[in-house]
């Protein structure tokens, strides 16, 4: 099997959530996926830029998409917000020829090659669960989860708006479930699995954000989850890094280990914990993982 992508990890994976990037690269190396770095790529232009300067944001997204196109590969990302932003831009550029021409003219002034709207935008989770042969993936599992109850937290930007995604995957919420099952775990069904993580109101309404984190995590824990995984670096930040802050703010104890999906997959593959950045997690998963023999 040979799969190759222009790899766009996003801003968070370059700074505060580096472990998600490390794990993605390690897992892809195990199954033969080639990730080509994008040295010219910038922030995807999500949220505030998209709202305040939509034309500027569209030009930024087109610049990133053009770099992937120049490499001759589709683009893959590990951030739901980057996925949504780039997919939304790609959808419009593919379906609005006049807009594509206008944006290419803007980017031409900066020396950016014209985007021909020929590529697709993928989430790495979709690639691993839908494009990698399931038997190959199973053959790489050396430390199965032995029935561990894992909460799949999908968030919202990888699911909605469904129409901007070029994949049958869009709008569904079963990729994490299938991955958990494949590596020997039990996927927990719970209320918060496809809710917003709260990251995007972190600055505008910090109390609301912390309540959202608390509600999502406790709904998973009350359903019996021992661990939570997400497919998004921003969800990782909210549900993991801000979990302790949410506890103090809401006065409720959570204590639910959270990690990126590639980290848990990497552990099941027997990849070294340090290589996956497990020590950087804010709520230690060691007790749960050691009880199942996933780590020593």
Average residue pLDDT: 94
The Rg value, from CA coordinates, equals 19 Å
How far is it from the N-terminal to the C-terminal residue, by CA?
A: 32 Å
Name the CATH architecture of the largest domain.
3-Layer(aba) Sandwich
Number of strands: 8
State the oligomer.
Answer: single chain
In the CATH hierarchy, what is the class of the largest domain? Alpha Beta
- The CATH topology of the largest domain: Rossmann fold
Please characterize this protein's 3D structure.
With 296 residues, the chain is α/β, with parallel strands linked by helices. It folds into two domains: 3-123, Glutathione S-transferase Yfyf (Class Pi), Chain A, domain 2 (Up-down Bundle), CATH 1.20.1050; 142-291, Rossmann fold, CATH 3.40.50. 47% of the residues lie in helices and 10% in strands. The protein has helices spanning 18-31, 48-52, 54-71, 80-95, 97-108, 124-131, 134-139, 175-182, 206-222, 233-241, 243-250, 261-268, 273-276, 286-291, and strands spanning 3-8, 33-37, 75-77, 121-123, 149-152, 186-187, 227-230, 258-260. Strands 2-1-3-4 form a four-stranded parallel beta sheet, sandwiched between helices. The protein has a four-stranded parallel beta sheet with strand order 6-5-7-8, sandwiched between helices. The mean pLDDT is 94.
């Amino acid at each position: 099997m040979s799969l190759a992508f222009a790899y766009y990890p996003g801003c968070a994976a370059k700074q505060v959530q580096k472990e998600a990037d490390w794990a993605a690269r390690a897992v892809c190396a195990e199954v033969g996926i080639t990730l080509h770095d994008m040295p010219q790529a910038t922030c995807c232009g999500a949220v505030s830029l998209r709202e305040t300067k939509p034309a500027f944001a569209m030009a930024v997204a087109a610049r990133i998409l053009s770099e992937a196109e120049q490499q001759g590969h589709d683009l893959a990302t590990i951030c739901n917000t980057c996925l949504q932003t780039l997919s939304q831009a790609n959808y419009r550029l593919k379906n609005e020829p006049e807009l594509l021409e206008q944006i290419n003219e803007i980017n031409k002034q900066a020396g950016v090659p014209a985007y021909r709207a020929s590529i697709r935008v993928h989430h790495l989770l979709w690639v691993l669960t839908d494009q990698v042969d399931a038997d190959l993936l199973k053959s790489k599992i050396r430390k199965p989860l032995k029935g561990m109850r894992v909460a799949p937290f999908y968030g919202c930007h990888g699911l909605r708006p469904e129409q901007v995604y070029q994949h049958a995957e869009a709008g569904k919420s079963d990729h994490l479930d299938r991955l958990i099952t494949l590596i020997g775990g039990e996927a927990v069904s719970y209320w918060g699995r496809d809710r917003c993580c709260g990251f995007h109101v972190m600055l505008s309404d910090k109390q609301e954000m912390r309540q959202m984190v608390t509600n999502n995590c406790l709904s998973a824990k009350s359903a019996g989850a021992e661990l939570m995984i997400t497919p998004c670096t921003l969800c990782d930040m909210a549900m993991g890094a801000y979990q302790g802050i949410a506890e103090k703010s809401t006065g409720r104890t959570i204590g639910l280990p959270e990690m990126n999906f590639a980290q848990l997959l990497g552990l099941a593959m027997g990849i070294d914990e340090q290589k996956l950045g497990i020590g950087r997690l804010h709520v230690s998963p060691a007790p749960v993982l050691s009880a199942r023999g996933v780590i020593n």
